[in-house]
Design goal:
This protein has 183 residues and is of the alpha+beta class. It has one domain. The strands form two sheets. The chain has a three-stranded antiparallel sheet, with helices on one face. A hairpin with a 2-residue loop joins strand 4 and strand 5. The longest helix has 25 residues. The two termini are 47 Å apart.
Length: 183
């Protein structure tokens, strides 16, 4: 007797949950897609700061770091970042203070204000690092959300299980034979 195919898109939430937790290959596929999506987004966000940084490394499973080469430019880039991507109320308050100090420095260029510019740039650097550290953590809920997106995008449209057996996932693959012209 042939077992019934059940495609992943037709599984219940609890069955999909079980697959994410218990099927390493499947879980890794979802995690890789999540990482790729997040890293693309982070790349877009980091473009805001590209001219103000000397070096940076943002990624999953490593120590993130950011080195500023232009404190004043970094503060103004953070303003653009805030407008495009949004920041917490606490970060916005810090940014507003930093912008006041930056503008005061530009108007006077006094030595006592350059230290404050550096100080605020450093505080904002830490805020940005904390933000990216949060982005590069993986929690179960993030993977569930990513799986939902992948199913909506039909990335698993050919994946199925047989009967009620969740221990194996199969892929429905159609093979194509190439015919050659007679010469």
């Amino acid at each position: 007797m042939e077992q019934k195919k059940t495609f992943l898109k037709d599984l219940s939430v609890s069955q999909l949950d079980w697959l994410l937790k218990n099927n390493n290959d499947f879980s890794n596929m979802v995690e890789e897609d999540y990482i790729e999506s997040v890293m693309f987004w982070i790349g877009e966000e980091m473009n805001t700061f590209k001219d103000t940084l000397s070096n940076w490394e943002i990624g999953f499973y490593n120590q993130n770091f950011i080195r500023i080469k232009d404190d004043l430019g970094f503060i103004y880039a953070y303003e653009v970042f805030s407008k495009w991507y949004g920041v917490s109320d606490e970060t916005q308050k810090l940014l507003d203070e930093a912008l006041q100090v930056a503008k005061a420095y530009e108007n006077t260029e006094e030595e006592n204000t350059i230290g404050k510019v550096e100080e605020y740039a450093e505080k904002l650097r830490i805020e940005l690092l904390n933000y990216f550290n949060g982005c590069t953590e993986i929690e179960d809920d993030y993977l569930k959300e990513q799986l939902s997106i992948m199913l909506d995008n039909e990335q698993f449209e050919d994946y199925y299980i047989l009967g009620d057996d969740l221990s194996k996932i199969y892929i429905d693959i159609a093979y194509t034979k190439t015919l050659k012209w007679k010469s």
